[in-house]
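Work Package 3 committed the consortium to producing structural models of liganded targets before the mid-term review. Because experimental data for this complex are still outstanding, the team generated a predictive model from sequence and the ligand definition alone, so that downstream docking and mutagenesis planning could proceed in parallel. The input record is reproduced below exactly as it was submitted to the modelling pipeline, together with the SMILES string for adenosine-5'-triphosphate.
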Amino acid sequence: MKSNRLFFYFSLYRRKFVIIFLFQELMIILSLINPYITKLILDRAYPDKNLRLFISYIFSIGFVFLFMGLIRFFLNRITQNLKASIDFKLSNDLFKHLQNLDLNFYQKKSTGQYLYHFNNDIKLYVDFMVEVPIKLITLILNLIFIILIIFKINSKIGIFCLFLFPINYILNNFFKNVLNHTRRQQINILQEINKYICDIFNNFKLIKTFRKEEYEINRFINYLREKIKNQLKNDKIIRLFELLSSSINKILFGSIIFYGGYKISKKEFSLGNLSAIGMYLGQLFSIINQLNDLYKTFTLREIIVSRLEDIFKIKSSLYKANQSEYFIKEGKIEFKNVSFGYNGNLVFNNISFSLTSKRIGIVGKSGSGKTTLLFLILRLYQPEKGEILIDDININKISEDSFKKDVAIALEEPLLFNDTIANNIFYGLEEYRTEDRLLWAAKIAKVDDFASKLKDKYNTNLGQGGIKLSKGQRQRISIARALIKRPRILLLDEATSSLDSDTEKNIIENLKKELKYTNIILVSHRFSAIKEMEEILFLEDKDKIIKGKHKELLENYLPYQKFFYEQRIS
Ligand SMILES: Nc1ncnc2c1ncn2[C@@H]1O[C@H](COP(=O)(O)OP(=O)(O)OP(=O)(O)O)[C@@H](O)[C@H]1O
Ligand SMILES: [Mg+2]
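The resulting structure, written out as tokens with the ligand in place, is given here.
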């Protein structure tokens, strides 16, 4: 598993890692002392009936336990602290990374999958990072110490102990593949469930209107069944593994004790030695169990670490180098031999046009690429060929901040946060969030018509996705949010489609009046709004885009005429 990120975090928090490691080592050394003191009690203090020696040994054991308790306390504190730091950094990095990816990425994954990454993967990643390496090193060192001590007490028993490793290794390997498979399945199922739940809560209106509650309950039960079936299968394998390994290890332990007892009866071995070996063996088996657990964790977390790493590896396809601040002046938009498509299906094939008017209308059949065209101007997608220019500057050279200041869009589907009307409108504005500005935007977009009548006015909470408003009202908020920053270019993508013609006309007139210096690009199916625009862009085909005034096109261009009358009839 190659992971630069893991190493990056290691080096970032290396001091804490080293401190934890040293504390762990100290714990190990301390844990090796008490069996030895027990041996001394049995071999020295007990046969000599030396009470002072006995008491001092007992006190030493007590002192070691106390000291270990204290160290454990600090160790846990530092470990939790380290985990919290990595969790914070990793969550932050992941969020930042996801925010910077382009639209294409978001269209491939569902909300549920992101939730899963944030809720589960990060925690597992952090646990993996902090626990596995430190535990692995300390356990191995501990193991070496114990084996050396056992060897020192009795070399035959020491050799016997060495058999434990190949046996456990074979067992682990045998179970590894089966376990990995069921675990992968388990993660996939959990992710599917998350995805499903998010989908359900996002589409609850659909479920209610189609009376699909019963159907969805059954779908959910099926998911749960699958999850539990897999969980039990996974558990069965783990328990079987535990049963086998602990039985084998216990048989070995029993044989060693039996051998020690035999040696005592022959007076070749002291009781103290046997008791110390018994205690060290206890520790040895506990280490082997922990190593087995670690191995299981390792195989599972490897899946999680690589999943997160895979997300970090995704790069934004958008061009971000050599950009600089630019304040849009004329707002002239030009497409030069642009080709663009989704997954190989071209929407535009080598198209060129230039838009110089302040008021532009875009028309074309559904699916002809109107939204795509706006998204290309917004630089949410990158053309496959050709270039897009604003004021004769390639838009790739304009900084994100300039785009943020100067270009705004209102979409047909008004996307709103579960927040107040005011905050939803202010979302479009970075600074100068004054009430005057809010009212100014709200009046232009005719939000004020309904907001001023609400009990809490602009502080009314809109509920999830703006559920408490009609679609036309939500569209008006979405327009206010786009215009509040007085952009130099305002894109309206069927943003008034749910409004009655009068309100639509009113808003467009307001926009023209109040945003004199803004270039407005209006996508609409309604010719009542379009024909008022100075210049029309007609998306006839993927390689044919026609520009002209509405009247001229209607008189002289047959396909436009046809399109116009079809729209009017429908
Ligand atoms: N994210 C996407 N992935 C794949 N194909 C897409 C994607 N978005 C749009 N398309 C396809 O690109 C074409 C143009 O879509 P676009 O949304 O730009 O059309 P439109 O003119 O805005 O249509 P409408 O009038 O219905 O809003 C369509 O054929 C559509 O299926
Ligand atoms: Mg569209």
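Reviewers should note the following from the model. DSSP finds 20 helices and ten strands in the chain. These observations will guide the Year 2 experiments.
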